Amino acid sequence: MDAAALEREGLAAVASAATPEELDGVRVEYLGRKSTLKLALRDVRDRESGLELNAIRERLEEAVEAREDELRSAVLDRRLTEEVLDVTLPGEERHLGTLHPTTLTRRVIEDAFLGLGYEVIDDREVETVHYNFDQLAFGPAHPSRSHRDTFFLDPERLLRTETSPSQIHVMEAKKPPIYMVSLGRVYRRDEITATRFPIFHQFEGLAVDRNITLADLKGTLLHVMRTLFGEHRQVRFRTHYFPFTEPSLEPDVSCPICEMEGCRTCKYTGWIELGGAGMVDPRVFSNVGIDPEEWTGFAFGCGIERAAQLRHGIPEIRPFWENDLRVLRQF
Ligand code: PHE
User: Fold this and answer.
1) Which member of 48, 91, 242, 298 has the lowest number of beta carbons within 10 Å of its beta carbon?
2) What is the DSSP letter of 139?
3) Please, which residues bridge with residue 119 across strands?
4) Residue 278 beta carbon below 6 angstroms from any ligand 1 atom
């Protein structure tokens, strides 16, 4: 064996190893137990060739080690340049959901009534003519009973046109005193305009107790309107007619958009109509078996979208039902 040639060949192989794996192969080939060098070392007889072969072994081992360091730092360098994390890249946008403005307003209303000791009710949306009209003392010729105004499912069943049937359900199920608020969807066959939509939400309050007066109704509405629209709100009543209240009233709230300076929303009157109200009609008490000589009560109903519109300054009702995320994400 030509020892010098073997060393040259070995050093060249080490130098050309391009990866740690290739270098491992070279190590096995030139320095492994069955390599030419190791076999020659085992057979060595004289001191001189023993020293020479050992010196070659040492130089080859050093070369392998040095190459190993080089390759390892090359691998590290490559990973450091290839796997860099560019902290200036924009991150992935993640949208958190937000509550719908109707839900936000509904919760404010629920909290206000819970604070007054009212029970919060979630009632059925499919009603019968009996509960939606008869028990509420609607006359036989009332226009709401017609197919033109109301969504009928069959001659007896319909989508409730207001939350007032909840008054009947609660009064049939419980004995007075009763303090309840019912919130949910109602349906009317209206054309879609800026202010009307065939489906919307109402909240309906009912209080039945001894010696309840109009002043209690006004104080309750004033408290709720101030919770919804701020402490400066005023409430006034205009007389009106509903079949199930006597007297019947329409509450107005002082305009929260212009603070009564006059604007388009309040049509320059400073006041905004907000639903209906009144003292429970004795006929309704009789229908549900409550003695009108002993018990008195008030009731009111308001649109929830309307309240949300005023709270957030949204001029139309349509966006509440279109569910355009660009709109909803603003709440
Ligand atoms: N239900 C009536 C409406 O939708 C509002 C109302 C509720 C009036 C309770 C009086 C008492 O217009």
Assistant:
1) 91
2) -
3) 180
4) yes
Asked if residues 191 and 178 have their Cβ atoms less than 8 Å apart, the reply is no
Residues 6 or more apart whose CB falls under 8 angstroms from that of 186 comprise: 125, 159, 160, 161, 162, 163, 199, 200, 201, 202
Distance of alpha carbon 255 from alpha carbon 128, whole angstroms: 37
Q: Which residue has the tokens 């007032």?
A: 164
Burial of 52 (0-12, 13-18, 19+ CB in 10 A): middle
Tracing tokens 């209240």 back to the chain, one arrives at: 245
CATH architecture of the domain covering 101-328: 2-Layer Sandwich (3.30)
pTM for this one?
Answer: 0.73
Q: What is the pLDDT of residues 232-278, one digit of tens each?
A: 999 999 999 999 999 999 999 999 888 899 988 889 999 999 999 99
Beta bridge partners of 212: none
178 pairs with which residues across the strands?
208
Question: Token pair 């190893």 is at which residue?
Answer: 17
Q: Where does the chain hold its CATH 3.30.930.10 domain(s)?
A: 101-328
Q: Which of 144, 164, 201 to mutate to test the pocket of ligand 1 (most atoms within 8 A of CB)?
A: 164
Of the candidates 196, 120, 200, the one whose C-alpha atom is nearest the C-alpha of residue 160 is 200
pLDDT digits (tens, 9 = 90+) for 263-316: 888 899 999 999 999 999 999 999 999 999 999 999 999 999 999 999 998 989
Could you tell me which of 219, 237, 119 has the C-alpha nearest to residue 171?
119
Residue 70 to residue 76: CA distance in whole angstroms: 10
CA of 276 to the centre of ligand 1 (A): 4
Kindly state if the Cβ of 300 falls inside 6 Å of ligand 1.
yes
Q: Which of 204, 242, 250 to mutate to test the pocket of ligand 1 (most atoms within 8 A of CB)?
A: 242
